[in-house]
Design a protein that fits this description.
By secondary structure, this protein is of the alpha/beta class. It has ten helices and nine strands. It comes from Antrihabitans stalactiti.
């Protein structure tokens, strides 16, 4: 098995991949009319125009609340509500990932670009995100303001540097979110959580906050309308979501996982937590065996260990 690290065209045989595609995306009649859609577009434009001003004008102690409110408002303009469930016990201080000033490493499954808004709607965070995200329309500017940590998964040699950035920023008291699957899945099926990024939690002795994130209809059934998979374009995904109605982003804050000393064990524990009670459905995703789909090759993690 070989890999290349050539500028502009890097690839390797164990590049994270998903069998999900546009065939997985729900097509139903839960849509809004042209007037409502236009109202949403105007609302999004207004939020993007006013956020830099509001964020700069308020005192530092209020910035988290302002950023959280804007994330929730953007979701509402996309027709998405947020529901937060806390499974961590009564002693946890409120519906948030960490107390102000405390660093946190948060991991979640990855469905689409709305995950960023949904997770930030609980408490402002920074993300480990695909390197080209800053070039996306609308979300690009938001990504820059959220100080994303860029990752190019085609370049394995860059992974240790990403791990160090995560560790440094956690140590500095930042809340960092990673999507260790390495790519998006539709939400009815999921991939494995790759172990490499969990090394940052081990290096800093930081407990990990797993999130079980799903998108549901008001009746509780799963929906894949928010997924961003396969050949889906950003424009098509945005238009589909703006046309949709009645989506709820459900975020379950699972019990904290202690880092330990083995990133594979930590990743496995967090994967079980991230999946929660969901029954995975691989039948319509070109995957014959769910155990095979959850199998993670060892080579990339071993390579990262050698070059770290």
């Amino acid at each position: 098995m070989t890999w290349q690290d050539a500028a502009g065209d890097s690839t390797h045989a164990w590049m994270p991949s998903s069998p999900c595609g546009t065939k997985c995306v729900d097509r139903d009649n839960m849509t809004v009319g042209n007037v409502a859609m236009a109202t949403r577009v105007v609302g999004i434009a207004g939020l993007f125009l006013t956020f830099p001003i509001a964020n700069a004008a308020v005192p530092r102690v209020w910035k988290d609340e302002v950023q959280q409110r804007y994330a929730r408002a953007l979701l509402r303009c996309c027709g998405i509500d947020v529901k937060v469930i806390d499974n961590r016990g009564d002693t946890w201080p409120g519906l948030r990932y960490a107390s102000p000033g405390d660093g946190a490493f948060i991991v979640s499954g990855h469905v689409g670009w709305t995950d960023i808004l949904a997770i930030a709607a609980v408490q402002p965070v920074s993300f480990v995100a695909r390197a080209d995200m800053t070039e996306w329309p609308l979300l690009g500017q938001l990504a820059k303001r959220m100080r994303v940590i860029p990752i190019d998964r085609a370049k394995l040699k860059a992974l240790p540097g990403v791990v160090r950035q995560i560790a440094d920023r956690i140590s500095a008291g930042e809340r960092i979110v990673a999507f260790p699957e390495g790519t998006t899945w539709c939400g009815r099926a999921y991939g494995s959580l790759r172990p490499a990024l969990f090394q940052a939690a081990i290096d800093t002795a930081t407990p990990v906050q797993p999130i079980a994130l799903t998108y549901r209809r008001a009746n509780g059934t799963l929906t894949t309308l928010s997924s961003f998979v396969g050949d889906d374009s950003m424009v098509d995904s945005l238009l589909r979501i703006l046309r949709s109605d009645g989506i709820v982003a459900e975020i379950v804050l699972q019990p904290i996982e202690q880092p330990g000393t083995d990133r594979r064990d930590l990743a496995a524990r967090c994967e079980r937590a991230v999946r929660g009670e969901m029954e995975l459905d691989f039948a319509d995703h070109g995957v014959l065996d769910s155990a095979e789909a959850r199998n993670t090759p060892k080579q990339p993690d071993e390579l990262v260990a050698r070059i770290a």
